[in-house]
Amino acid sequence: MKKRNQFDVAVIGGGPAGMMAAGRAAELGARVILVEKNPELGKKLLITGGGRCNLTNAETDARKFIEKLGKNGKFFFSPIAAFGTRQAIDFFEGLGVKTKMEDRKRVFPVSNDAADVLEALKSYMEKGGVTIATEATAAGFNKKEGRLTHLNLRGSEIEAQAYILATGGRSRPETGATGEGLKWASALGHTILNPFPALVPLKISDGWVKQTQGLSMDNIEVTLRVNGKKDSVRTGNILFTHFGMSGPAILDISKRVGEVLKDKTTEVLLTLDLKPALSVTQLDERVQKDFKKYQNKTFRNSLDDLLPRKLIPAIVKMSQINPNKPVHEITREDRLRLVKLLKDLRMSPIGLLGFDKAIASSGGVDLAEVDTKTMRSKILDNLYFAGDVLDIDAPTGGFNLQLCWSTGYVAGEAAARQTVERDEL
Ligand SMILES: Cc1cc2nc3c(=O)[nH]c(=O)nc-3n(C[C@H](O)[C@H](O)[C@H](O)COP(=O)(O)OP(=O)(O)OC[C@H]3O[C@@H](n4cnc5c(N)ncnc54)[C@H](O)[C@@H]3O)c2cc1C
C-alpha cells in the first residue's frame, strides 16, 4: 500500500499536454497526481482560438501534418502515429464535445467554447481517478543514480516512479508558462534550445499600417522578401494594429521574419497581394469595370467595391493619383500603377512583439535527447516530456494543440507502462 504522497506517475503542469498525459496514464491503471501552480487548470487552453479553441487540424495525412512542423517535424511521426488528428477528434467527441471543421481544416467545438474542451479533459482525468493538486508550485527535482526520486513542491514533496514534465514554453507568461520547467530540465543535464517568440505579431515602421488599425482581411498573400528575393509566402487572414500587423498569416511568417531581422544589414520587406486569386491582367479588367461604373465619381470615391473602406485612404495616397481626379480622367499608366500596388503592397517589419504577446515560443528541450516512441528522456530513466516544453514549432491552425494531445498521450502511456512493469517485478 502506497503512502499518501506516493504515486506511480506525477505530471507537472495542468495545461493540455499535462492533462492528456495524466488522463492516459490513469486510464492504464497508474496512480497519478497532476500538479498545477494556478488555482485552475488549463488557463492558456481557455484563451486558445480567441476562446473558441482550434483543438486540432483535420489533416489526417501524417506526412502533410509533419511538413508543417519544419526542421523538427520528423520527430513527431511516431507520436502522431500513436495518437493522430482523427483520434483527437474521436477522443473529444467521445467525451461529449461535438466538433466542426472550418476553413484550412481547422477543428473547433460546435459550441465555440474552449471551456468545453477543458471540461472534457477534466472528466477524462476524473474517470481515471487522477489526484489534482492546484495552487501547487513545483520547485524542482531530486535525483539519484540517473533517476528522479522526488518532486519538490513549496513546503512538501511528492514521490513517484515516473515524472512527466508538461510545464509549457514561455509564451503568454501570465497563463503560468514562465519557463521554470526548462530550467530544471537544463539543471538535470538536458540541452535547452533558446526559446524565442515564434507565432507573434510584427512591429511595422510604416505609418499607414498603424492608421489602418482594426482592419482584418481574409485571403491575403503575404510574402517575405529578403534583399529583394522572395523568401517565404503565407496566405490567410491579416490584421492591422496600432503597432503593426497580426493575424494568422502574419503569425505564421513571424518566426522567419525574426530570424532574418537579426542581421541588421539585411533588407527585409513584407509585401501583401490583396487579390491573390486574380492575375495582374484579371485585376486590371476588374478595376476597369469599377472605373466604368464610377466614371463620374472622384478617384477617392471609386474604390468601395474593390477595397475595405479603412484601407482606401492609404491606397489612394500610395497610388500617387490625385484623390479628387474624376475617374474618367485617370490614365492607363495611373491605373496600372494602382493594380501593381494592390498586388504588391509593401511594408517594413522592424521587430517582433515579445513572449507576452506570442502564441507559441520555439525552442525548448532538445528533441535529440528525447525518445520519440515514448517521450522519455534519454538522460534520466524516469523523466518524460509533453507539449510546448519540447522544441516544437508549428504554425497556427490547430497544430500546436495536436502536438500536445499526441505527446501527452504517448508520455502518459509510456510512464504508466514503466511503472506498471516495475510494480510487476
Ligand atoms: C493566445 C493563444 C491562442 C492559442 N490558440 C491556439 C489554438 O487555437 N490552437 C492551437 O493548436 N494552439 C493554440 N495556442 C497554443 C497552445 O495554447 C499551446 O500549444 C498549448 O497551450 C501548450 O500546452 P502545454 O500543456 O504544453 O503548456 P501550457 O498550456 O502552457 O500549460 C503549462 C502549465 O504548466 C503550469 N506550470 C508551469 N510551471 C509550473 C510549476 N512550477 N509548477 C506547477 N505548474 C506549473 C502552468 O501554470 C500551465 O498551466 C494558442 C496559444 C496562445 C497563447
Automatic annotation (TrEMBL):
Keyword Flavoprotein: yes
Lineage: Bacteria, Candidatus Wolfeibacteriota
Keyword Chloroplast appears in the UniProt entry: no
Domain RsdA/BaiN/AoA(So)-like Rossmann fold-like: 8-413
Start and end residues of each RsdA/BaiN/AoA(So)-like insert domain: 197-359
Gene3D superfamilies (alphabetical): FAD/NAD(P)-binding domain (3.50.50.60), HI0933 insert domain-like (1.10.8.260), Translation factors (2.40.30.10)
Cofactors named for this entry: FAD
InterPro entries registered for this protein in UniProt: BaiN-like (IPR004792), BaiN-like_dom_sf (IPR023166), FAD/NAD-bd_sf (IPR036188), RsdA/BaiN/AoA(So)-like_dom (IPR055178), RsdA/BaiN/AoA(So)_Rossmann (IPR057661)
Protein name: Flavoprotein
Native source species: Candidatus Wolfebacteria bacterium GW2011_GWB1_47_1
UniProt keyword annotations, A-Z: FAD, Flavoprotein
NCBIfam families named among the record's database cross-references: aminoacetone oxidase family FAD-binding enzyme (TIGR00275)
